[in-house]
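Hello Y.,

Per our agreement to keep a running log of every chain we model this quarter, I'm adding this entry. I've kept the format consistent with earlier entries: sequence first, then predicted structure.
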Amino acid sequence: MGLKCRDKQDIAIELDEAHPELNPASIKNAQLRSLVLELDDFEDEPEKLTDKALEAIRKVWLDERGML
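Predicted structure for the entry above:
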């Protein structure tokens, strides 16, 4: 079963593993949206990646990095 927008923790972990060179705090929502959509396991509808969902994913990603 693939990742859905509600799977913020798993998405953040996959983003961190795929893009260790990126600072989650410095990327724009459009780039974050593209990165999530590019994940092999992401299977949700793209329109569900709202700004609110993206900010929630970013917050978890920052927390994964110990940046919160």
